[in-house]
Structures are given as structure tokens and as C-alpha cells.
Protein: Alpha-glucosidase
Organism: Pedobacter insulae
Amino acid sequence: MADEINKDHIEEIKSEHIEEEIIQHLNNPVTNLKPIVKEYLTDVKKVKKEGNKFYFSDGNAKVEVRVVSDEIIRVRLAPHGVFLDDFSYAVPQVDQKVTTFSLKENDDDYTISTNTVTCKVNKADFLISFSDNLTGLEMSKDASAMHWEENVEFGGYYVYATKECLPEENFFGLGDKSGNMNLRGRKFQNWNTDAYSFGWDQDPLYRTIPFYIGVHEAAAYGIFFDNTFRSYFDFGKENYEKTSFWADGGELQYYYIHGPHMMDVVKRYQTLTGTHQLPPKWALGFHQCRWSYYPEKKVREIAEGFRQRQIPCDAIYLDIDYMDGYRCFTWNKKYFPDPKKMIKDLANIGMKTVVMIDPGIKVDDNYWVFKEGKENNYFCRRSDDYFMEGHVWPGRCQFPDFTNPTVREWWGGLYKELIDLGVAGFWNDMNEPAVFGAGTFPNDVRHNYDGYRGSHRKAHNIYGMQMVRSTYDGLKKLMRNKRPFTITRAGYSGVQRYACVWTGDNVATWEHLKLGNIQCQRMSISGVPFVGTDIGGFSGEPDGELFTRWIQLGTFSPFMRAHSAGDTSEREPWSFGEPFTSINRKFIELRYQLMPYIYSVFWEHHRYGFPILRPLAMLEQEYVSNHYRQDEFTFGDKILVCPVLEQGATSRLVYLPKGQWYNFWTHELLNGENEYDVQAPLEDMPLFVRAGSVVPEYPVMQYVGEKPIDEVWLNIYYAGYEVNSFMFEDHGDTFAYEQDIYLEKKFSVKGDGKNLVIQQVIEGLYTPNYELYDYNVIGLPFEVSKIFVDDKEITEFNIDDRKRLRFKSNKNFMHIKVIGA
Ligand code: MIG
């Protein structure tokens, strides 16, 4: 009986697909040798258990279900029973800690249960589903059995998974995508692409992050389809009731990641693919870039321009023109006769130098990098053994095979000279890889793929990530215990372990400002949190207003860098005159004032996997209306940002999530779960602080580390209930934090209308240089009579002109009580 039902089901699906395939196939000269038929898993005939892996077979194909952790389950398909090599650039280690799991056979299905999730495999039709043990809610369910199709040209299979898409289900993530935050009703493709001046909804872009989050009935789950081939996702577009993902080759292999909160899903995804290292603190300052600043005189003029105008800045970038004929690791001596001296002079005024390195190596027998690569056979080759050659900036180029560990090691070492010259950061561009004319490499280029071999079809999407990995690993060795700073354009899931990213060649339009806001949030919840846009827009000309609004958004972008193409007008924060210069300065200063908060948020990401930017959809996934709201986000947990994205706006609507929020500028206290029309003149982007927060603050500095910190300001936002905050501190540029040389200070703030209690718990081994905290208590609803610090009364306090309670204490206090009159 069961078998019969199953047969009908399969026949139905097959006929549906065959028709569509035959049409495709008739138009394809390569594949019309043989009819293409999608094959589906049929029914479960055999089951076998091996440790944390369960094998199900229909007599021909095999499926592996592997319990990775209590909340993560991996599924793999082997169309003819043989699994591919279990190797992934994204997931260095698959197995995590599992409490307990079990397999049960029922009449109609098998169930594999951990403490939290149950994976069900239906006997009759091989449909797989995942549900929450506690609520019984089915989170994700196959709509048809996993299927595949032979690839006659290259061998292997096109692989497909199709899940049910519930009517109220919405989708998020997928990393580097353009357009709206909510992915429902759209179809995407992953193929790393140099997408100069990309548009709203253009796809694909520079990076491949095949990870999405689904939310329905207020619960979330994630799917990570770890496949590096060209891949596709359809969120109910072709068929409103189906979500599917497929790839042009490789293995159908995906991780089901349990929620129920979106935040849980992201954190768990991050346990698979890793988090970003703690960046050197200076990398969190403002950076100024341009294609290109040269010659040396210009670079100095810009750097000094920041100091003269007292606009903070930590880094200046040298784009491709610093090189000799675009040869990587060389200098154009006409423009830069003495790079060492220039870099040192810049360093003396607190300005770090970041330089670009591209993957294309000029074919030139007098160029040492080319010679070394050629002699050692480090460059990529075509299937018939010719070198992969293409034109990029230097002219005719060959390209290192970064998927070869030996090549990565070599390339990482090439940075030595630049490090010796004092270069502080490295920017890897064009690593999709981009080739003029052709776009990228042809499919037949061969790659080492860390010994697992592959054509460019398989290696394309991870080429850029392996390039920047080689850069990062090389720098880590060369810089001993100092944290490298690297930035990459292309990447794949896991790229966050090696670099920060920028969104590529955007455009100086209001639409792009809006898009950039969404892109950064989306990258952040897709596991790549250290991200920013080219402030001001790469191509085109912003006016003063657009530039200033972009600086405001950029102040709350994890990576804050202004950049522009060479054929545009000057694009420094002072290029637009007043009032813009002053407003730009005010926001860049704010970035530096908030540095201890921003740095703490990065720590929270690094250590615990929290995203840095959190969209409203994540903050309140239970309100479906928030699934469509994409302007507001929080930076960390405490600061809510709502950029102004309309030309000429002087106010805008802002939705505040649950809880109470203080207007950062006016200190007005507002209730969440409401929408407000907030004043937003050009000098004030709407910003809110969660009531009960402790937001640490530094004095304004022109660059990170300019001044010794004598005391840290603690801005305490009163709440009539208890709220926890934390602050992270360490050296700021070493890996000593890996040996616990850091401080994690946990604050709790609790008001009851008459008193305010502040507590601090300090963990870790680092000792900061300052002794004092200087408090600004905002929103205190009572008159102060007494203040006790660790039970000792202090008498020096006052209320300042902004109605803030001001006093100081030793930084090691444990308990403060502010008592009302
Ligand atoms: O073909 O290095 O996205 O940021 O300024 C253009 C020159 C190459 C593209 C990058 C852009 C950079 C530019 N690069």
C-alpha cells in the first residue's frame, strides 16, 4: 500500500519536471545527446547507524543524516551510493558536542531525535522533515524527495532539494544580495561576480553565502547549503508553496540549524563557519579611501587634511596606482620614491596605511613574483594544461591557485616586504576572480582544492576566500602576535574567519544608501558581520546632503570607510563645505566616542557569535510586520539606529521595539512597540538607547590610541527594571585575548522609582591604565539624596545642565546605590 502511494507521487513529480527539462534540453547543444531525467529518491529500504551518522538507502541512492549538535543536523545525498569527499572550506570541523540522540523506527517513518530537534525520514517517499521537540512545530519539510540529474558534460550531478514553503513563511539571509531584506517570493543565484554599479535586485553579486533563515509561526530555523558550485535558491517564486535550492554540481549537502530564535540560528551557523577575529581596534575607526590617492604628496595632503581640520581618521588607503604597472608587491617609484618614510610619517600622525593587492600577476619574466610563480607551478591551468590567462589591470596575467595550500603559503609570505615597510592593512580586490572581457575564469580551469581537486565550477566561489585566507594567515605569521587587518571583495561562507568585507562598487544615489543599509544588515545576519559600504557611493557624484547622510549610516556600519572611483570629484568629509563638514565631523567623532561600546559589540560577536547589526525582523520575529521593515536596526543590543534615507527629510518614522528607549540626542524616553515621527534634521540621525543600558564612552580622539584614557565615561540610562550590559577591554591589537588577557565587565542597572542600583562583575586578566569611571546618569526620575559606592557614601555629585547626575567612582566598584530624596 505504502509503496503504491509512493509510486504515484513520484510519477506525478517526474512528469511535471520532464516536460520542462525536455524543452531546456532541446535548446542545449551539449546536453541533447541523451534525454535528461531528474531522478528522485524513492522509498527507504535500508537503515544503518554508525556513531552519530545514520544511513538511509532506497537500494541505490544513499542519504546520510548526521547529528552535529543538539540543534544542528546535516543531510547529505549520494545519488549512486557513493558520497563525495567530506571536505569543506566553510566548515573546518563538522562534529560538535551532542548531549544525546536516538533513532526510532515507527510504522511510517524513522525519527532521529536530539534533546531539541527531531528529524523524520518518511519510509514511503523519503521526505525529510525537522521539528521542535518542545512545541512539536514542524520547522522545515521536504515537498518532494531530494533529486538529481546527470551532468553529461562534466560528470557528476545537478542536485536539488525542495521544501515546503508555508503561506506565512518569510526568509532572510543569503549574504550578499541586493534588494529587500525579506527574500520571500524571489529567486537567487550564487556565482561570485564583479558587479560594478550593481542595481537594486541585481543578482548575483560578489559573495556566496548559501545560508538562509526561515521564519513562520514566530519560530525560526536555518538551512546552510554547503555547496561551492553555482547554486540557486527559490523562496516561493516559481511555486508559491515551495522553497528550493539546487546547484550545478557537487553534493547535495545541507545543515538544518534549529532556532527557535533567529539569533540562535545565526549563532549556531557561526559555530559551524566561525566568527570574525577581534579586529585591531584601529580598524574600527574611520577610514579614508580613493581610487587612487597618489603621488605621495597627495597622500600626505589628505592625511594632514584630517588632522588640520580635526576630523578623526585612522587609515588612508592606496588603491592600485601605488604599484609599478599594477604589479602586486611593487611600488611605483615615481609616485612613491620612499614608501618607508612616507608610511612612517603617516604613522607619526596616527594614520595607518592600507594597500591593495589583486590576484592577477602580470606575465613578465623580469618580475620576481611572476618568475617565482612560474618556476614553482603556482598558477592556474586550463583543462588541457595551458595556463589560465586573462587581462586585468596589469595587462596579460596569470593567477595563483589559492586553493593549493603551498601556493597560499607562498603568497602569504610575499607580504613580508610591505609589512617591513610598515603597511598596516591589506585589501584584496578582484578576487571573484574578475577578468576583463570574459568576466571570470572559464569553467575548465583546474584547481588543487586542497588536494580534493576540482574545476573552476567547483572552486570559483571559494577562490576569493582562499586568497584572503592566504593573506590573513601569512600576515598572522609575519606580524607575530599582532592582529592582521584584511579586507576582501569576494568570499564564501566562512570568509569572516579571514577578513572584513565591503559591499563593492555601489553608486552615489539615495537608492544605494537605502540598499547599503539593507546589505549591511543582511550580511550581518548571514555570518559576515564586519561589513561596510563605500560611504558616499563609489561611482557617481553625491551632493553634500547625501554624503552626510551616508556618513551617518556609516557611523553605525561595522566597517566605516569612505571610497570613490577615480573619475569623481574629491570625496573627503570636508569636500562639501559647511554645514556638511561640521556634521560629518560630529558623526565621525561620535564613532570614536562610542569606541568602547563598538569594540565590545565586536567582542560579543567574536566570542559568542552574535551578529553586530540586528534588523527589526530579528529583534521581533514574532511580529510579521517587522519582516517587512528594513530601515531600523540595532548596533549590538543597546543602540537603535534609523538612518535617514530620503532627500530633504527633516523627520522620519521610526519603529521602536519592545522596552523603553531614550532618544540619544534629547534624552526623551519613549515606549517601544510604537512608531514615532522623529525629528531628523541633517545634523541628527535618529538614534535611541535602550533604557537600562550602560554605554561606555571615550573622549574624542583623532585616531584610536591618540590619548591615554584617564577615565571612562559610563552613560547610564535609567530604567525602572533590571537591564544587563557589558564592556570589553584589552590591549586592542594582540591575540592575548586568546589567553584570557582581557576584561569582561558585566553591569546590571536597576531602578525602582526611588533608588538606582548599579552593579559590576569583572572577569579576566587585563589591567587597564585608568582608575576612574565618570558617570552620566540619564533619565533619573527622582532627586538624589545620597550615593554609596561599595557602601561608602560619596558626597561629590551634581546634576549638570542636561539634567544628568554626574559623579565618579573607582573603576573596580562592585555596588553603587543612588538613593532618592
Ligand atoms: O576594476 O582598484 O571594487 O573599490 O577602487 C576596478 C580599483 C578595480 C574595484 C573595487 C574598487 C577599487 C577598484 N577596483
